[in-house]
Automatic annotation (TrEMBL):
Keywords: Lyase. It comes from Didymodactylos carnosus. The active site is at E127. The keyword Lyase applies. Its EC number is 4.3.2.9. Coiled coil: none annotated. It holds the Pfam family AIG2_2. Substrate binds at Y57, F58, A59, I60, G61, S62, Y169. GO terms for molecular function: gamma-glutamylcyclotransferase activity. Transmembrane segments: none annotated. This is gamma-glutamylcyclotransferase. InterPro entries: G-Glutamylcylcotransferase (IPR017939), GGCT-like (IPR013024), GGCT-like_sf (IPR036568).
Amino acid sequence: MFTTNQPRVCTKDSFSASCLKILPAPSEKSFVDSILAYGNRQAANFKTLTNDEYIFYFAIGSMINPISLHLRNIRPIVSYPATCYDHQIVFCGPNGMANIESALGESLEGVVHLLTATDMDTLDKVELFYNRIPVTVTDYSNQTQVTYAYQIDLSRLSNLEYSLPSERYMDIIIKGCEYYGVRQAYIDRLKQINVVPRMKPSEYKCITDVPDVHYTLDDLVLRNGTNNYPVWISVNHKIFEHTGLPSPDDPSYNQLSTTYNLIRNLHAGKDMTLKISQNIYEPLYGIPLTEDEMTLEHRSMAEDTFLTFISNPKLGDKTYWRPIGKLIKSSSEKCTPNC
């Protein structure tokens, strides 16, 4: 049984408190205007006289939310709501990910973020299952702008089907829409979409058969896939080692390879617990700035998130990661994984 002082309800007050806790002050209008002066409404990319590149990005999923952006170190120069006509939002894949589809006569709302090329590159690395596509949007002053949106890459996800988004994911989208002033009618539409309810803490996936072998952070850092070392990661005080991939002709190879490369490129030789809580922002728990601020329940959610991400239901949830021991972060610390 897990205990926490936090209610399992995402409230307006808790979201506002998180925003006040971590979000920086908005950019000065004069600075924004000096950059927008180089923009072209017929192009998503533009450069200034100093050769700095900026990109208009149309967010429809979790990147609508300012906290989700901040936790990925993405700082929009300016953001504003807009409508994309002849397209619709759908939810696809095993986790009900937001996707944009062409649909004559339909429309969806989102938020345009003006990003630096560096921040856009960061997003490209995070959104590995998506491709950037150009779409034209109309802001609430009836001005059009060519932007980029992310559309799911069918070559990286097999048998893509429509599915329900999670309650957590929809909370993030709705809170972001409210924050940036997206039309209430669209927010009301989102609230009517069926969702997969949040799991109870007792339902979280948890590895219990972890060898009673202790490793330090130094041990973990070495195992980053270089110098003939294997790839290790840690979640919730448990260390996992990657055991390899199936043969390239295996139907699950592309998806497992993409998953592995994402983990290796971003997390090899590292503890993922705090990073998961930031990348998979859960409004219920607010924003932990350090791992010490995470509750036991939040840690368990991070482990469940990792185990779900690496599993393949078609293989009976078989994974290519095995638990090999427990992480000790200091000489005085006792390793007591909480499940």
